[in-house]
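To assess whether the prediction recovers the assembly geometry, we first specified each molecular entity separately, as shown.
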Amino acid sequence: MSEPVIKAVRVNKCYGNVRAVKNLSFSVPESICFGLLGPNGAGKSTMMRMIYGASDRDCEPAGEISVFGFDPQIEPLAIKFLSGVVPQENNLDEELNVEQNLYVFCRFYNIPRPEARHRIDELLHFMELSDKHSARIRELSGGMKRRLIIARALLNKPKLLILDEPTTGLDPQVRHLIWDKLRGLKRQGMTILLTTHYMEEAFHICDNLIIMNKGEKRLEGNPQELVKKHIEPFVLEINTPEAYSRIKPSLQQNTRIDKNGGTVKVFSSDQLFLQKAVSRLNPGEYFLRQSNLEDLFLKITGSSLNAVQ
Amino acid sequence: MRSSKQQLYPPFTKRISGVWYRHYRVYTKSLISNGLPPFLEPLIFLAGIGLGMSRYISEMSGIPYVTFLATGLPITAAMFTSAFECSYGTFIRLEFDKVYDGMLSAPLGVNDLLIGEIIWAGTKGLFFSFAVILVVAAFGLVPLWSLSAPVIGFLTGVMFAAISLLITSFVTNINHFNFYFTGFLSPMFFFSGVIFPIENLPPVLRVAAEFFPLTHSVRPARALILGDFSAVIFYDLSAVALFTVLTGWPAIGRLRKRIIK
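The predicted structure of the complete assembly is given in tokenized form:
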């Protein structure tokens, strides 16, 4: 098997007394999409920044990061030459227009002018921004800015694409467009590392992911398999405590109850049992569905109160 | 270490020129509003001095007062443009516009960003001092060979870029730059031999003037324009180099900590 594109071994990062990343290890093989999931403040972005040298990891205890065999603390430029980076914040150059933003980056990559022109046109077309060629950055919508930053990250034909929350705050159309493009790039052999707190996003495009909480890795694996392995396949959501108390007596032992605010979630592997239980509820009081990565995420990151009653 | 022959990413000079190009592109985008004032300012100044002040002060250090000023103003123009670029300009790129954040996702390091910035500020110093000299030469106030003096404008720009970056590395609120401009640059404008020769200052200030960076770029510029060379130029140019290194070095170190979190 070939060397992984990214290898992180027991990486730590403190900001003052806050341990943003704790003993994090993972590795990303070639040509897959790898996700870092976690709530805000879980340490995802910090980890990302350490991978391309925009943050330094702690030297004590000594961890290890290697990207294409380079240590980001020693050879960040080699890593950044081989990788495209989409940072969390839109940091386009507002003083330049769309085409100039891309051309300046071509200069940073030392791409000769004719080739640069060609790639810029190609990528604007790819990200469906061709008609915005000469637009000012301020005229672009949030989704267009995001697509432009992705185009910018692709200028040097990277082998690795690093995306920090690529679709946060975007409308569904743009999100699906971006997912589509990312899947296409992966098929072409690109390795993709992304952070997100959209479970749907992770489920759609990640081959492998880790769920982080408070700087630590809590789970790692393929999203479909993780859901299968770590959470009951069905969930009954009940909207009001009153409705819950009505059917509470009938809920048997092998269900798991998760109360969070006014909503009660009843997890079970027995779909028929849940279907029977809802017969005593009015429409609008409940929602019966398959459990998903978000349920797993909430279970793992403990964002909801767990109570077995 | 891997052999540098096989270095994947662009060499240092290409990286610096990339950063320089970014600033150049932004600056030349508004060519009229950015490029015209440097030529207008000396015109206004000459009008004011020529029509007004020179009736009262006709000579300074044995040359016409207008000529005396014309040999110092190219350098203060370079100082101010460079100081603005690397104080307000840098701070905005660093904190508000996140331009550095964006550039750091390209194969550039903090050194490349800041050295590119310093060289760009030098270029602006060159251009601004060139504009002033062109105007005063057009009026016959200085000889044509003075058009070589913008070289000193470049060095002045580089020096004040380094100094300003060091100031910027301490600044957390953009309004603090007021102190830098009022407390440091303005006094220097008056006490570094631009408006009158420092030889006429009281002894204490006379010594203090030697510690003002501007003094060391005004003197060689004046020497170059008047064709009046002496060994002092080497002392001055060494002082310029020293100021540049002594402020630029810690500035880059301190700003790195702010950029690489």
